[in-house]
Amino acid sequence: MRGRIHLQLRDRDGALVAERRATNSVMRGGAELVANLFTGDGVPINRMGVGTSDTPETDAFTTEALTNPPEPDASRLEGATEIALAPEEFTVSVDETHRLVKVRCHATLPESAAVGTLREAGLLARPDGEGDAVLYNRVTFSPISKNDDHELTMFWEVSFPYGDLQWMT
């Protein structure tokens, strides 16, 4: 699996303020999430989120959540840090040339959400939209300062290879 994100921060007039592109790391919990789909126990990816940490991933890939320090920490993001994704917001396509099935989705955090300095993003699975989330993947990027007059749109693409995958062993 390979994922990548394209972030666009725009002002009220629609002008591009900042842009980032990054490739993701799948968390161990995210791999378990996909594996659990085989047993019928999986929860679908249903949220996108952002956080404040640019700490590199460890070799264990066990980051459990995106970071938003407790109040009144000066680096805390103000407003919601996640946005829900409905199933119809995902598109699936097949790239036969490269033998990939691609899943794409995008969502926009409104002006009032995640105000502060962003350094990470991820796709999450939150049962029934509440409770503890499973962080499927995570990217870090150079800081983006999001003000309360900015919207942040995140475009995700996750690719799943198919065919003879012996090269992976």
Q: What are the defining features of this structure?
A:
mainly beta, 1 helix, globular
What does the secondary structure layout of this molecule look like, with pairings?
Blueprint: E1 2-11, E2 16-23, E3 25-26, H1 28-37, E4 47-51, E5 82-84, E6 91-95, E7 100-109, E8 116-125, E9 134-146, E10 150-161
Antiparallel strand pairs: 1-2, 1-10, 3-9, 4-5, 4-8, 6-7, 7-10, 8-9
Number of extended strands:
10
Q: Give the strand line-up of the largest sheet.
A: 2-1-10-7-6
Note the run of SSEs as H and E.
EEEHEEEEEEE
Rounded average pLDDT: 93
Number of helical elements = 1
Could you please describe the fold and organization of this structure?
This protein is mostly beta strands. The chain has one helix at residues 28-37, and strands at 2-11, 16-23, 25-26, 47-51, 82-84, 91-95, 100-109, 116-125, 134-146, 150-161. The longest helix has 10 residues, at 28-37. It is globular and about 50 Å long.
Compact summary:
This protein has 169 residues and is mainly beta. The protein is 6% helix and 46% strand.
